[in-house]
Amino acid sequence: MSGCVKLVELNPLVDKGKSECLNEDDDHTWLNVIEESATGELKSDCDEQLILRVEFTQPVKLHSLVIDSGCDAEQAPKEIRLFANEYSPLSFDDAEQRNSTQDFDLSFDELSKPIEVRFVKFQKVNNLTVFFKNNQGDQDVTSMSKVKFIGSPIATTNMNELKKVG
C-alpha cells in the first residue's frame, strides 16, 4: 500500500440502518462493538456462530480489521471468513459453503491487533460480511468487545449533486 494513503477507522462509515448481525444475543448486539462510544460486547445467541453484515455509506478500501476479545478469552473468535460485496445476505449454510474473499484462523495472540487483509481483494468494498465460525475454546457462545475496520474511503462524486453548466 502506498505510503501516502492515510489509514483511518472506517466504523463511522457503517450504515447502521442497512447493517445487521445474525444470531446475536438480544442484550449484546453488534452496535456494542461498532460504535466508538458504545460499551459492552457482541455475543452469539443459539450457538457459537455469528454473521455480521456491514454496509458502508460509500465505497472503501479495506486494509485490516481489529477484533478485541470479550471478557472470556475462550469465547473470543477463532475462525472467521470475510465476504466482500455480497449483495444477497448470506445464510449460515452459505457462509460455510461459499468461496469467501479471505479466511483467517486466528490465535488468541492475534486478537486486538490489526489483521491485514489481501488488499488487492478489498479495493472497492461497499459491504462486508464477517462470518465468525467458532471461538478459541469451542464454547457455546462467541463474544468480542470491539470490531474495527481500518482502511480509507474512496473519494466519490455524487452525480445527483452535479449541476448542468451553461
TrEMBL record:
In this chain the PITH domain maps to 1-166
- Which terms are listed as keywords in the entry? Disulfide bond, Redox-active center
Query: Cellular component GO terms, alphabetically?
Result: cytoplasm
Q: Quote the protein name from its UniProt record.
A: PITH domain-containing protein
Query: What species is this protein from?
Result: Oikopleura dioica
